[in-house]
Specification:
By secondary structure, the protein is an alpha+beta fold. It has two helices and five strands, in the order H-E-E-E-H-E-E. Strands 1-2-3-5-4 form a five-stranded mixed beta barrel. The protein is globular and about 65 Å long.
Length: 125
């Protein structure tokens, strides 16, 4: 009986630690990652919305100037969302951007792709 209890306890701790990884990533952010989503720029707006997620992150990083330039090259108006695939680092949760309106900051290291969104792509119509 004691051995069975010990095995159950170890299995329970392993399961708890694995689920804890998700919680830790959610709270503290990820390391370098590749993300696809939509970006939009305008007055006091520099946002990235990952595909199929109802969140927006404030954009920063060494490749932000390139992302801005390529956004303008698409000929879209301010605030118009466009598709972007970017590499970078997501911050832990906090208050970022204009008036602290964004729960995370995303530091863009590399712009992989930027183009017009197709209808319904990334959950945006």
């Amino acid at each position: 009986m004691t051995r069975v209890l010990a095995i159950c306890l170890v299995e329970g701790l392993i399961a708890l630690s694995l689920s804890g990884c998700t919680i830790v990533n959610d709270l503290f952010g990820d390391s370098d990652d590749s993300w696809d989503g939509s970006v939009a720029f305008g007055f006091e707006v520099e946002s990235f919305q990952p595909c199929s997620q109802d969140v927006q992150w404030w954009l920063t990083g060494e490749a932000l100037v390139e992302l801005h330039a390529r956004y303008r090259d698409l000929g879209v108006e301010q605030y118009a969302p466009v598709y972007a695939k970017v590499n970078g680092t997501r911050s832990s949760k906090g208050k970022f951007g204009h008036l602290g309106a964004y729960e995370r900051e995303f530091s863009v290291d590399e712009v992989v792709e930027i183009r017009h969104l197709a209808d319904g792509e990334c959950g945006i119509n």
